[in-house]
Design a protein that fits this description.
With 323 residues, the protein is an alpha/beta fold. It is 35% helix and 14% strand. Strand 1, helix 1 and strand 2 form a beta-alpha-beta unit.
Length: 323
């Protein structure tokens, strides 16, 4: 088996135990399935990314002993994202959305996880009303926008007015398989609706940047936390719209959670690996602690990186289904 798996942290804080567990899964997949590892620094959110965190990612991985085969950083890839956007524009799959955050929350339903399910307000305002729009309207309340007064939304795409760009999602069920969690049958139109690919600050969104990167960097295997599983169907739809015909192989691994059963998060100021390093804790102690929290071991006895990778690799399927 040959291919590429990526480890893709965001430099919006220093790495923490959740990143370490994810890295163990990525490097275990590479070892067991014969893949190369690509480090992608996902700094698409320039409002939160910091040079110190970018430097910290590289330093922490080196200290822990993780070696990778190639590297990229999203802030250097703007021309690639622009070219991908032009592909979508040529297919009429993008439109401007002028809805404010307040409007989005007030005018659209939300999923069980609090995600906004966009009902297409600006989609129907981007062009004269057609009867076919009512037939094609999908989702609770989406058709209610048809034929309404347009005074609260610009009639043209005025670049001076803050707006994001949304990708038009087809109303269809996407069938995909996760090596750990099994089969899924999901309709992104009902999960999230048309979703942003560039935000009101003119920054590329996570959903768009990772799809373009996964295509351009020839990523064949996506190993990431199960908290991102809900993004998979919409990302498949976007990658296919951009011309990818062969889907990646997916595995969403379990998470480490805190005492409140919440995943570790930089937004919640999760304790960083750098703090442990400064306190004199060794990489081996961290591997033992993380593997214990992930229920891979019965105790938190220090173990080597190779031992930790072997523990994770033992949980992965073998032989791997062919691409």
């Amino acid at each position: 088996m040959s291919g590429i798996v990526r480890f893709a942290p965001s430099p919006t804080g220093f790495l923490h135990e959740g990143h370490l567990l994810s890295a163990l899964y990525v490097w275990a997949a590479a070892k067991k399935w014969g893949l190369k590892v690509h480090l992608r620094i996902e700094d698409h959110d320039q409002s939160r990314a910091r040079p110190a965190y970018i430097k910290g990612i590289r330093e922490d991985l080196a200290w822990l002993g993780f070696h990778y085969d190639s590297e990229s950083i999203q802030s250097a890839r703007n021309a690639i994202y622009e070219a991908a956007l032009q592909k979508l524009l040529a297919k009429s799959l993008v439109y401007p959305c002028y809805c404010s955050r307040k409007q989005l929350l007030a005018e659209n339903p939300q999923s069980d996880t609090g995600e906004i399910i966009y009902q297409g307000k600006c989609y129907y305002r981007r062009q004269p009303y057609k009867a076919s729009d009512a037939t094609n309207a999908v989702g609770h309340g989406r058709a209610e926008w048809l034929g309404q007064e347009r005074s609260d939304c610009p009639k043209t795409s005025d670049e001076s007015t803050p707006h994001n760009l949304r990708f038009i999602v087809s109303d269809k069920v996407i069938h995909w398989h996760d090596l750990r969690l099994g089969d899924f049958h999901e309709n992104p139109k009902l999960q999230c609706g048309d979703f942003p690919i560039r935000d009101r600050e003119n920054q590329w969104t996570y959903q768009f940047a990772v799809c373009v990167d996964d295509i351009d960097e020839h990523i064949t295997h996506i190993v990431r936390g199960e908290d991102i599983r809900n993004s998979t169907a919409r990302q498949i739809a976007l990658m296919e719209a951009l011309g990818r015909t062969e889907r990646p192989i997916y595995l969403h691994h379990p998470l480490i959670v805190d005492e409140n059963n919440k995943k570790l998060s930089k937004r919640e100021l999760a304790h960083s690996l750098r703090q442990d390093k400064e306190a004199g804790i060794t990489p081996e102690a961290l591997f033992g602690r993380v593997c214990h929290k992930a229920k891979l071991t019965e105790t938190d006895t220090p173990i080597s990186l190779q031992e930790a990778i072997a523990l994770v690799a033992h949980t992965l399927p073998s032989p791997l289904p062919s691409l």
